[in-house]
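Go through this:
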Amino acid sequence: MTGVIELGYSLSNRFPDPPQTDYRSASVRSLRYDLFCGDIWLEADGVDLSTGWGWVPVLDFAWALCDTVEQLDLDPQGSRAARVQTYDLDFTQNTELLRFARRFGLVEISATWLPDEPPAVVRHADLRREARDFLQDVLADLGDLHDGLADNPNVWTVQGRFPRV
């Protein structure tokens, strides 16, 4: 049996966004890598794969997770594919990775910073739904916190690319 996926985040007080940030015109690079640092809470199949570093770019993680789920779905056979499809989500500020391996409709998720933890196993369709919901929730939260962010064309692009399912 596969497990439930829970995603959440917290923003860090140690790494605040620069006060002069114009969120309405922030570049993709700034949105993904320079702003909104904190931690990710990820629990899947009873395995806690959360970060505790305080500097993870939260929007980038949500965006990259959606990209990862799509990369795992490139085989034309989809959930019928017997070949293992893998993808690593890296954290640019260190060498740690979240590793994803899909076979048929199931995805194993493991974290290099937790080598003794068994991988979590979730359904690919559940991971897609939760990743997209998480991204949309993060964007809505950040839009409420930061004037102009909801008007940024880069935000519109990512919202349209990964709608809720």
